[in-house]
């Protein structure tokens, strides 16, 4: 447990970056801004240009100061004669980013954007068009369903929500049964992360339509069963969630969906904290899970393999991925080192021992959703290859 | 079409009420405030007291003026020495209300609340505990699923989203088939309204568990197929949505779900604009629908019956409901009169003609979600009684 906490703290330090104030030099800005795809219906702002800059705009005629706060930098907006404040950020990485506005010292969501849960809150998010966005585009192909369900949980004495992705043909052939991937969000996020900003359904619909992934079920539930408060990480304990997942959710899914309910056809993956959870839970439950995916969430070392009886026989895939900027950060902070050892070195060592591994680096992205969408897109085709 | 538009305009006038500024006399306020059930996880504000007052609070140290804007009234908040602004509203009707904050002239969502789509935007909403809230409480009983699906729509050349509620046993008995209710949101709302603030799944789960309603499928999709802009109502035309619903969505649902795909087992209902849509679409498609529900959305007159061949044979139920405050408003504005004639008089007249009708008034509520939750709760048990 101590290693988990140390790892999470290191990770948060890596994520947080430096906080500063900024104002963009407007003379260099490309004037090809368009409303973001993550805007509320009909809203003109925020906008994004071809450099990946975000232009925010809000009417606040009596305000003294309005700022756009994105990727840990605050950009001053400028007021025009009608009381509308507007301003641009520096270019952002392609993909999805959380952000907010500051109005005279109040941190608020941008009324122009759709809202997403991250950083322990529902707040604004913005999509910077990515060169590879086609893999999660909504296309005119057969679509699966994302089902909101409640499952009974004795250990927490609640009905708990999960989202269940069923592939396009699930309702057609009532005789067919499917493997299952249990897919976890990160710290400060919840079960809406993968279905919403994660684009899980569209990634899978597209992969299945192209014949690149086998159809399987994906189950996404809330992985922070402890008290949900900022700083609650210090009290984080894997046991309550392991009980919910392994003893309650999996039996419920197997009883209520046409699953292939055995170890070879069950996978677990997660991003960031969800990766740590995946590592801890799968290593303790190798009779339950055969495929393991850690997205920006540590790795599995030769020591882990040594200390886990039966690992080599039972584990069919160890997939580890990071954003390239995360890898760069690890190299620049050798004294801290990544959680559980250098992930590439670990994976190479496991590979030499004959374990089926896959290491993926998302180009030009950091600890953010574009890395994780791409990770799912790389991971899914490797699953359940009988 | 002209009557539809006139009706909608009258309705909007009734809804809008009077806009004014206010500040609550704090000496009379009961100090038993608790965080609202609609708050974001772990957030202390907004709060609600036993009188139904809303207490908003936000840190805005540099702001000059902060207001809580709810039920068309703006309440000034007061700043404390730490820069936190706090203030209360007058007592609100029980049930769900949209609201927002104003910070130095900027209208923004409250970062403490969950967000709901209404008034053409995702924004803050708050639940005032109702005396009858048990009928939409989350209980430890079998739960149905709310499925997010995409269906192909040639007429709009898009993949369109719908939510499909399937009752608790839907996945158990693969031989059983179910009736279907098509359920529409109001103007300025979207397909998230009924599943989120409408509590459709919980209302149905509870009714089914108590044996009060037959299990049936509910389909909820977006009913404003025209351009989504404020003021777009003037250009509202029922034809595009009727095409999506009748020619595209219904065949898709019948092909992909175990429906009883005939007129006696198909109902349509809607709230406000969704009621107008229901009235127009069902009257033109009586070979498709047998049960009609209009919630705060007009009524069906003896003239309608006369002008619609086969009405008496084909229609199994005409359900009309309003909030009691809407009825009071109609009485106070006799010159304008309600859309399509006095709803109670119309329903009584239909009843005398031998048509199966039901008129329901939600006590002490207006043109708001508590009226519509209660309407669904009254309507569902009357459906598909073979």
Q: How is this structure best summarized?
A:
Chain A is α/β, with parallel strands linked by helices. Chain A has helices spanning 2-16, 200-209, 238-256, 273-284, 302-307, 311-314, 324-332, 343-352, 369-379; strands at residues 20-22, 34-35, 47-48, 54-59, 66-70, 73-76, 78-79, 84-88, 95-103, 106-108, 115-118, 121-128, 145-153, 158-166, 180-184, 217-221, 266-271, 291-295, 317-323, 357-362. Chain A has an eight-stranded mixed sheet with strand order 13-14-16-15-17-18-19-20, sandwiched between helices. In chain A, strands 1, 5, 6, 9, 10, 11 and 12 form a seven-stranded mixed sheet that branches. In chain A, strands 2-3-4-8-7 form a five-stranded antiparallel sheet, with no helix packed on it.
